[in-house]
Amino acid sequence: MAIRQGMTHVWTKSSHSAGNGACVEVKSPEPQAVAVRDSKVPQGPSLAFVPGSWAAFVDAVGQGTLTRG
């Protein structure tokens, strides 16, 4: 299920989760934020992205252009 920016109020597991426990969940309860968390630690911290940064991150992951610093 794709999230709808500003309209996804519940955590949604990534469609790219491989079933191996390495999953992220995403929600966007407000138009100006996309939140991401580790599905294995639901009470743990989450990251918040502004929409443009989230889109750039997803594009970079899809293109395989991210590098480790």
Word description of this protein:
By secondary structure, this protein is an alpha+beta fold. The protein has one helix at 51-63; strands at 8-13, 24-30, 33-38, 46-49. The protein has a four-stranded antiparallel β-sheet with strand order 1-2-3-4. The protein is globular and about 30 Å long. The N and C termini lie far apart (31 Å). Residues 10-61 form the DUF397 domain.
Topology summary:
Layout lengths: L7 E6 L10 E7 L2 E6 L7 E4 L1 H13 L6
Pfam family, one: DUF397
Protein name: DUF397 domain-containing protein
InterPro entries: DUF397
Give the C-alpha Rg: 12 Å
The string of secondary-structure elements, in order, is: EEEEH
Distance between the termini: 31 Å
Poorly predicted spans: none
Strands, count: 4
Shape: globular
The number of distinct structural domains comes to 1
Structural class: alpha+beta
**Main β-sheet: number of strands, strand sense, barrel status?**
4 strands, antiparallel
The overall pLDDT, averaged over residues, is: 84
What percentage of the residues does DSSP assign to strands (E)?
25-35%
The portion of residues assigned to helices is: 10-25%
Question: How many DSSP H or I helices?
Answer: 1
Protein name: DUF397 domain-containing protein
InterPro entries: DUF397 (IPR007278)
Organism: Streptomyces macrosporus
Region (Disordered): 1-24
